[in-house]
Amino acid sequence: MTRLENPDGCAICGAALPEDPPDVTLPEGFTLAVTPSAGSGVRRIAFCSERHRRDWLDGYRGEWPDDAVDDNG
Asked: Are 12 and 55 in contact (CB under 8 A)?
């Protein structure tokens, strides 16, 4: 079973999710503990739009557009 990371809204903006939201599926961290309550090791991150999914993937991969603003400096 896949665990939905944020079931209440888009991972980027928090907006309500459409019926079949665009998503990204990632493996969770490896664990040695095998228990009945252990998850599948997969998490699903959902977005309100394909644009937010692409933006999140670009950031995850470290690919930033040249005109991106750095808020840290």
From this structure: yes
Cβ pair 52, 10 in contact under 8 A: yes
Nearest 10 degrees: Cα torsion 15, 20, 42, 38: 90
What are the boundaries of each domain within the chain? 3-30+40-61
**Number of helices followed by number of strands (H, E) in the chain:** 1, 3
pTM listed for this prediction: 0.64
Pick the closest to residue 43 from 18, 23, 21, 14 (CA basis): 23
CB atoms within 10 A of CB 24: 16
Could you list the mean pLDDT of each consecutive 10-residue stretch along the chain, which spans 73 residues? 71 91 81 54 88 90 64 46
